[in-house]
Amino acid sequence: MRRILVTGGNKGIGLAIVGAVLDEHDDTFVFLGSRDLGRGRAARDRLVRAHPSWADRSEVIELDVSSDASVHQAARWIRERSRNEGTPLYAVVNNAGVGGASLPLASVLEVNTFGVRRVCEATLPLLDPERGRIVNITSAAGPSFVASCSPERQRFLTDPGIEWSSLAAFLAECLAMSGGKPAFEAAGLGDGNAYGLSKACANAYTLCLARQHPGLRVNACTPGFIETDMTRAYVESQGKTPAELGMKTPSDGARAAMFLLFGEPEGNGRYYGSDGLRSPLDRYRSPGSPPYRDDA
Ligand SMILES: NC(=O)c1ccc[n+]([C@@H]2O[C@H](COP(=O)([O-])OP(=O)(O)OC[C@H]3O[C@@H](n4cnc5c(N)ncnc54)[C@H](OP(=O)(O)O)[C@@H]3O)[C@@H](O)[C@H]2O)c1
After folding, report:
1. 28-51 pLDDT, tens digit each
2. Beta strands in the chain (DSSP E)
3. If 74 and its partner were Cys, which of 6, 14, 63, 245 is the partner (CB 3.0–4.6 Å)?
4. Other CB atoms closer than 10 Å to residue 35's CB: what's the count?
5. Of 237, 225, 262, 241, which Cα lies nearest the Cα of 131?
């Protein structure tokens, strides 16, 4: 059995990843992470009603990625289960995320960047050292944010040798910045878009983590532009249907993550587009265009 933890697995793209894993790989067991046990159980109940055999291959686990206590408790539970079953964790999918113009930078970073690191740090000792994988669901907003930064900031956020200590110092600098957009612009950080910044930093952390753990496969991807609760307000504001806006379904949004979970991505610490092809960290690459290569 390959045991896989999916954070934010109770809805949207996370739930679609849970379903795709259970559907396509009989030898898997999924820990469906949910910060609210009730929402997690309701989501799993729906899956199990439609696919009764998935009952033995799934379990809800309470996991709020913004809380040290919650993450450690979840990791202890998984450790216990792995010990009983005699198999380490195969993979962690860091899918939980928040977005929205009204959210302050600190709240967005707490989930999208610090949350990813918190979960990785707690689960690294549980992962199979020879074939374990980490998949970070980031966003095309990350590279687009980097594209809006000064050359110096771009070099920093795409540096293959980046360390968590310097990334943490950078995040502290951003959190301490007052003065809104003009302050971010003056500091070479575009308009300081909180969501884009959080995802650019999650991509940079992916680089750092992969370098530190070369035995694991650690990569990031964007799911694409997907119709979920996260994008609902945007759709409503446009007065168009999701299809007219070019949006896809949560199942479509699970494809790149499935490739990084079970496929053979080249290299490590990379960022992939929703089409499962490698994409650059410092500019948007549209799905269907040629993959990014460092030497191109
Ligand atoms: N939709 C898109 O077009 C799009 C594009 C690019 C990237 N993404 C990324 O894809 C991922 C999934 O997004 P989605 O579109 O599926 O959004 P969604 O439907 O809003 O789902 C977000 C999930 O994250 C969970 N979550 C939020 N804060 C959490 C926390 N502190 N601890 C644990 N779980 C938490 C939510 O739980 P609750 O139900 O409890 O709130 C929910 O399960 C996110 O990382 C997002 O940034 C989405």
Report:
1. 999 999 999 999 999 999 999 999
2. 2-6, 28-34, 58-62, 89-94, 133-137, 217-221, 271-272
3. 63
4. 18
5. 262
Q: Ligand 1: which residue has its CA nearest to atom 33?
A: 64
Asked whether the whole model's pTM tops 0.85, one would answer yes
- Looking at ligand 1, which atom is closest to the CA of residue 10? 43
CA dist., res. 292 & res. 40, Å (int): 37
Atom 29 of ligand 1, nearest CA residue: 96
In CATH, the architecture of 2-141+198-272 is 3-Layer(aba) Sandwich (3.40)
Euclidean distance between CA atoms 173 and 257, whole angstroms: 31
Please report where in the chains the tokens 């686990």 appear, as a residue. Answer: 61
For the chain, the domains span 2-141+198-272
Could you give the CA distance from residue 223 to residue 249 in angstroms, rounded to a whole number?
A: 10
Q: Give Cβ neighbours of residue 214 (< 8 Å, ≥ 6 apart).
A: 268
Half-sphere exposure of 107 (CA within 13 A, CB side): 7
What is the pLDDT of the chain when averaged over all its residues?
97
For residue 18, give the nearest of 52, 53, 60, 74 by alpha carbon. Answer: 60
| CB of 44 closer than 8 Å to CB of 72 | no
Reference 259, options 211, 214, 224, 209; nearest CA is: 224
pLDDT tens-digit readout, 90-118: 999 999 999 988 899 999 999 999 999 99
Q: Closest ligand 1 atom to the C-alpha of 230?
A: 20
- State in Å, rounded, how far the first CA of the chain is from the last one: 40
189 CA distance to ligand 1 centroid (A)? 24
